[in-house]
Amino acid sequence: MASEQYPLLWLLLISIIISIISLPCASLDSISANQTLSGEQLLSSSGGNFVLGFLPIGTNSSQRFYIGIWYNKVSERTPVWLANRAKPVSNPSTSVLQISSQDGNLVLLDQSKSLVWSTNITTTSSTSNSTVAVLLDTGNLVLRDGTNNSSKILWQSFDNPTHTWLPGGKLAFNKVTGKSQQLASWKNSEDPTPGLFSLEIDPDGTSQYIIQWNNSRSYWSSGLWNGQIFNLVPEMTSNYIYNFSYVNNSQENYFIYYVKDENIISRFIMDVSGQIKMLTWVPASGSWILFWSQPRQQCEVFAICGPFGSCNENALPYCNCVKGFRQKFPEDWALSDQSGGCERNTPLQCNTGNNSSANVDQDKFFEMDNVRLPDNPQALQVGSLDECELACLNNCSCTAYSYESGCSLWFGDLLNLQEQYGSGTGGGTLYLRLAASELPTQKSQKNMVVGIVTGVVAACLLCGAIVWVLVWRRRKKALLNASKTMESGLMAFRYSDLQRVTKNFTQKLGEGGFGSVFKGVLPDSTAIAVKKLEGLRQGEKQFRTEVSTIGTIQHVNLVRLRGFCTEGTNRLLVYDYMPNGSLDTLLFSSKTSPKVLNWKTRYQIALGTARGLYYLHEKCRDCIIHCDIKPENILLDDSFVPKVADFGLAKLMGRDFSRVLTTMRGTRGYLAPEWITGVAITAKADVYSYGMMLFEIISGMRNSEQVGEGRGAFFPTRAAGKLIEGDAFSLLDTKLEGDANPEEVTRVCRVACWCIQDDETLRPTMGQVVQILEGVLEVDVPPIPRSLQILSENPPENIIFFSDLSSNPSSQMQTYTSDSSQNKTTSSTSSGNPS
Ligand SMILES: *[C@@H]1O[C@H](CO)[C@@H](O)[C@H](O)[C@H]1NC(C)=O
Ligand SMILES: *[C@@H]1O[C@H](CO)[C@@H](O)[C@H](O)[C@H]1NC(C)=O
Ligand SMILES: *[C@@H]1O[C@H](CO)[C@@H](O)[C@H](O)[C@H]1NC(C)=O
Ligand SMILES: *[C@@H]1O[C@H](CO)[C@@H](O)[C@H](O)[C@H]1NC(C)=O
Ligand SMILES: *[C@@H]1O[C@H](CO)[C@@H](O)[C@H](O)[C@H]1NC(C)=O
Ligand SMILES: *[C@@H]1O[C@H](CO)[C@@H](O)[C@H](O)[C@H]1NC(C)=O
Ligand SMILES: *[C@@H]1O[C@H](CO)[C@@H](O)[C@H](O)[C@H]1NC(C)=O
Ligand SMILES: *[C@@H]1O[C@H](CO)[C@@H](O)[C@H](O)[C@H]1NC(C)=O
Ligand SMILES: *[C@@H]1O[C@H](CO)[C@@H](O)[C@H](O)[C@H]1NC(C)=O
Ligand SMILES: *[C@@H]1O[C@H](CO)[C@@H](O)[C@H](O)[C@H]1NC(C)=O
Ligand SMILES: *[C@@H]1O[C@H](CO)[C@@H](O)[C@H](O)[C@H]1NC(C)=O
Ligand SMILES: *[C@@H]1O[C@H](CO)[C@@H](O)[C@H](O)[C@H]1NC(C)=O
C-alpha cells in the first residue's frame, strides 16, 4: 500500500522542484537559457496584451496541444500564432519549450525529449547559448541575442505567421531569397494544420496580394498598389481605424498596417472558408465582429465545395453534393472542410466493366441548368449536342459534358461548380453523368404522374365528405388556439399545427441570419410566413417575454408578428405573409425581368421604410435598433407598401451580433463604421444602413456590385460627387429610362448621402428623414463622407470631381463647409441662413 503512494510523492516532489527551477509565475515575458516552459505556465507580454503557452485546440482538446500566442484581454480564447501547428503534443506537462543549449534555438520537446518544433535558425558561435525569446506586446515572439544586449532579431513569429496577420506584422516578398511569406488557413475549424487556402504577396514580384487554392490556383487579387490603396479594394479607405503603408526597398516589398487606437483589438485572418477576413473584438457584445472579407461571395472561393460539390450562394450551407453524390467525409464537412468533396451513390455502369452495348441500362446524363461550368474543360470539335453526348458516353472517365458555344467534356473530378449562377455571366447547362439507376426513366415518371393524378381524383371523390369534416374540425381547432392568445394579441401555436399549415416546412421563402422562413396557409386561408429560429439558447420564459414585446410593436410599415411557437427546443415566429417578397428581388432582378419598380413606388418604399424605422427608433416604448437594415429585410405587401422585417430579433437572439453579421452575405456594405470601433451602437447605425439602401433604390443595383467592373467608382462616392455637380438625376437606374421626378431623385440622393456620413452626429434621425422625404424639411447638399473622399482621390475615374471641388468651390459647397456640424437639415423657413 505504502509503496503505491511513494511514486505519487516522488511526482509531487519532482514537480515542486521543476516549478522552482522553471518559470516562477506568469508575469515573465521571456525565456532564457536556463528556463523552461511547460504545463500551464504562461509567458505574458510586458503590457499584458498577449500570452504564450500550451493551448488545447479541438473537441478532443485534452489530446492536442500547441504552443500558441493568444489575446490576454479577449474573453474568447483566440490564438494568433501557433508554433507547432501541424505537430501537436499530447501532454503539455511533460513537454517543454526551452532554449536549446546546443544552438540557441527556441525548441519544443515532447515527453520523449524528441524535437517537435524549432525556430531552426543557423546560429553563429557567438549566439550559441545566449539567446533569449521575448513575447512583445504586439503579439510578436522574438528570439534575440541576450548577453550582448543586442537588439538584432535572430528570428520572430511575425516572419513566420500562421493564419493571423496582426497589426504591425507583414507578409513580405523577400527579393533576396525570392520567397514570400504566407498566411495559410486552418485545415478545418478545429485543426490548425495548414489547409488549402493561402494569402501572399505575388511571388512574381508585383505589388498585389493574391489568395490561392492549394498553392497553385489563384482566385482573388487585391489589385496593384496605386500609391494609396490596392486597386481592387476600394473599401480600404473606410477602414479608418487603421493606418497603413506599402514598403518597397532593396530587400523586400510588403504592406503593413497598424490600428490607430491601441484600445481596439483587430485582426486579419485567412479563414477556413477561403476568405480573408478583418475581425474586431467588440467587448460590449463579447464577440468578434466581422466587417470586411474578400472574396465577397463564398462561391467565388475556388473549389470550396470539393470534387463533385456544388456551391450555391443562395443556400445555407453553401455547399451541397450534386445529384447522385453524397459527402465523402461527413465528419470533415461538419467542421467546414468540404475539400474531400462528394462520392457517387452508385458506381457508373461503364466503370463496372459491363458492356455499354449489352442489354443493361446505360449511364445517363442529368441536366443542370444555370450553373457555373466546372474547372478545366476539354474542348471537342463536334457538330451537335448529340455527338457531344456520345463522345462523353464512349469514354469511361468522362464525367460531364456541356454544349454551349461548342462541345466541352470533363474527365475525372468536377471542381468549382456553382448552382443558381446568374444568367448572362458565363453560366450554362451541364450534363452530369450518372448511373442509370440514379435517374428515373421518363416512362416511369409519366406512370408516376398518372398514378398520382388517379390517386388524387379517387381520394377526392371517395373521401370528399371526410375531408370536409376534417377541415371543419381543424377550423374549430384553430379557433381553440386563438383563444390561447396572450395579452399582446399574439397567438401561441402548436408545433404540429405549424407543421401542418406549412406542409411540413416544404415551401421555403428564404433564409436569413436567424433561420429559415417557410410559407404556410392557415385554415381560414390567410397566408403566413413562419420563421424557424436557429441557434437560440434562451429559456422559454425569456423567449415569451421578448416575443410579447415584439408583438406590441405594430405599425403599417412593420411586418406584423401574429404569433409564435415554443415547444421543446423549437422556437418559431409567425408573421403575415408578404406576397410581393423582399425589396432586393424586385430591385436587383435581372435586366430580362419584365417587372421594374417605377420611381413613384420606389419613393413610397423609401418613405414607408423611413416611417417604419422612425417608429422603431422613437415611437415605441423601448427604442429598438434594427441592426440589419438591407433590402432583404424590406418586404412588400400586395400593394407594394413596404414593411420592415426582422426587427427586435437582434435583441431576442442575444447581444451576439456576430452571428448575424457573419452569416450575412454581400451585405457588409450596409454596416456603419462604428460597428468596427466597438463604441456603443445607436439608432444612427440604422440610419447609415438605410442610406446605403437608398443608393440602391436609386441605382437599382447593389452598391457593392458596382465596383471594379468597369463602372468606375463605388456608387455612393460617385453619387456624392454628382450631387455636388448638381447632376443627381444621371444616377437614376437606367431601367427606368428617365421616368422619374428629378427633384425627388435629388432629394433622395441628398438624404442618402447625409445618412452615410462617418460622423454619426452628422447623420439625420429617421424622423428628419421622414420629414425631408415628405417635403416638410429642406435638405442641403451633403459633404462627401470622409472615408469615401479618400477613396475617390485615388481611382483615376474620380479625380475629376475632386479637382473641381478644390479649384472652384461653389456657393453650395460653402453652405456645407461653413457649418456642417449642425445644420445638415434646415427647415424650409430657415434654410437660407444657417446662422
Ligand atoms: C538564469 O541565468 C541568469 C543569467 O543568465 C541568472 O541571472 C539567473 O539567476 C539564472 N536563473 C536560474 C533560476 O538559475
Ligand atoms: C476523441 O477521443 C476519443 C477517445 O478519447 C476517441 O475515441 C475519438 O475517436 C476521438 N475523436 C476524434 C474526432 O478524434
Ligand atoms: C531547418 O531548416 C533546414 C534548412 O534550413 C531544413 O532542411 C530543415 O528541415 C528544418 N528543420 C525543421 C525542424 O524545420
Ligand atoms: C555557453 O557556451 C559556452 C561555450 O560555448 C559554455 O562554456 C557555457 O557553459 C554555456 N552556458 C550555458 C548556460 O549553457
Ligand atoms: C557584442 O556586440 C559588439 C557590437 O555590437 C561586437 O563587436 C561584439 O563582438 C559582440 N560580442 C559578442 C560576445 O558577441
Ligand atoms: C543593456 O542595455 C540597457 C539599456 O538599453 C542597459 O541599461 C544595460 O546596462 C545594458 N547591459 C549591458 C550588459 O550592456
Ligand atoms: C519596387 O520599386 C521598383 C523601383 O522603384 C519598381 O521597379 C518595382 O516595380 C517596385 N516593385 C513592387 C513590387 O512594388
Ligand atoms: C494539391 O496539390 C498537390 C500537388 O501539388 C496534390 O498532390 C494534391 O492532391 C492537391 N490537393 C487537392 C485537394 O487537390
Ligand atoms: C501608424 O500609426 C502608428 C502609431 O500610431 C505609427 O507608429 C506608425 O508609424 C504609423 N504607420 C504608418 C504607416 O503611418
Ligand atoms: C454487369 O451488369 C450485370 C447486370 O446489370 C450485373 O449483375 C453485374 O454485376 C455487372 N458486372 C460487374 C462487374 O459489375
Ligand atoms: C461486350 O459485348 C460484346 C457483344 O455485345 C461481347 O462480344 C464482349 O465480349 C463484351 N465485353 C465485355 C467486356 O463484357
Ligand atoms: C478518355 O479521355 C481521356 C482524356 O481525354 C483519354 O486520356 C483517354 O485515353 C480516353 N479513353 C478512351 C477509352 O478513349
Automatic annotation (TrEMBL):
<keyword id="KW-0732">Signal</keyword>
<keyword id="KW-1015">Disulfide bond</keyword>
<keyword id="KW-0418">Kinase</keyword>
<keyword id="KW-0067">ATP-binding</keyword>
<dbReference type="InterPro" id="IPR001480">
    <property type="entry name" value="Bulb-type_lectin_dom"/>
</dbReference>
<feature type="transmembrane region" description="Helical">
    <location>
        <begin position="448"/>
        <end position="471"/>
    </location>
</feature>
<dbReference type="GO" id="GO:0004674">
    <property type="term" value="F:protein serine/threonine kinase activity"/>
</dbReference>
<dbReference type="InterPro" id="IPR000858">
    <property type="entry name" value="S_locus_glycoprot_dom"/>
</dbReference>
<keyword id="KW-0547">Nucleotide-binding</keyword>
<keyword id="KW-0808">Transferase</keyword>
<dbReference type="GO" id="GO:0048544">
    <property type="term" value="P:recognition of pollen"/>
</dbReference>
<feature type="compositionally biased region" description="Polar residues">
    <location>
        <begin position="804"/>
        <end position="816"/>
    </location>
</feature>
<dbReference type="InterPro" id="IPR003609">
    <property type="entry name" value="Pan_app"/>
</dbReference>
<dbReference type="Pfam" id="PF01453">
    <property type="entry name" value="B_lectin"/>
</dbReference>
<keyword id="KW-0812">Transmembrane</keyword>
<dbReference type="GO" id="GO:0016020">
    <property type="term" value="C:membrane"/>
</dbReference>
<feature type="compositionally biased region" description="Low complexity">
    <location>
        <begin position="817"/>
        <end position="835"/>
    </location>
</feature>
<feature type="signal peptide">
    <location>
        <begin position="1"/>
        <end position="22"/>
    </location>
</feature>
<dbReference type="InterPro" id="IPR008271">
    <property type="entry name" value="Ser/Thr_kinase_AS"/>
</dbReference>
<dbReference type="Pfam" id="PF08276">
    <property type="entry name" value="PAN_2"/>
</dbReference>
<keyword id="KW-0325">Glycoprotein</keyword>
<dbReference type="InterPro" id="IPR036426">
    <property type="entry name" value="Bulb-type_lectin_dom_sf"/>
</dbReference>
<dbReference type="GO" id="GO:0051707">
    <property type="term" value="P:response to other organism"/>
</dbReference>
<dbReference type="InterPro" id="IPR000719">
    <property type="entry name" value="Prot_kinase_dom"/>
</dbReference>
<keyword id="KW-0245">EGF-like domain</keyword>
<feature type="region of interest" description="Disordered">
    <location>
        <begin position="804"/>
        <end position="835"/>
    </location>
</feature>
<protein>
    <recommendedName>
        <fullName>Receptor-like serine/threonine-protein kinase</fullName>
        <ecNumber>2.7.11.1</ecNumber>
    </recommendedName>
</protein>
<dbReference type="InterPro" id="IPR024171">
    <property type="entry name" value="SRK-like_kinase"/>
</dbReference>
<feature type="binding site">
    <location>
        <position position="532"/>
    </location>
    <ligand>
        <name>ATP</name>
    </ligand>
</feature>
<comment type="similarity">
    <text>Belongs to the protein kinase superfamily. Ser/Thr protein kinase family.</text>
</comment>
<dbReference type="InterPro" id="IPR017441">
    <property type="entry name" value="Protein_kinase_ATP_BS"/>
</dbReference>
<keyword id="KW-1133">Transmembrane helix</keyword>
<dbReference type="Pfam" id="PF00954">
    <property type="entry name" value="S_locus_glycop"/>
</dbReference>
<feature type="domain" description="Bulb-type lectin">
    <location>
        <begin position="28"/>
        <end position="156"/>
    </location>
</feature>
<keyword id="KW-0472">Membrane</keyword>
<dbReference type="InterPro" id="IPR011009">
    <property type="entry name" value="Kinase-like_dom_sf"/>
</dbReference>
<dbReference type="GO" id="GO:0005524">
    <property type="term" value="F:ATP binding"/>
</dbReference>
<keyword id="KW-0723">Serine/threonine-protein kinase</keyword>
<feature type="domain" description="Protein kinase">
    <location>
        <begin position="503"/>
        <end position="777"/>
    </location>
</feature>
<feature type="domain" description="Apple">
    <location>
        <begin position="350"/>
        <end position="435"/>
    </location>
</feature>
<dbReference type="Pfam" id="PF00069">
    <property type="entry name" value="Pkinase"/>
</dbReference>
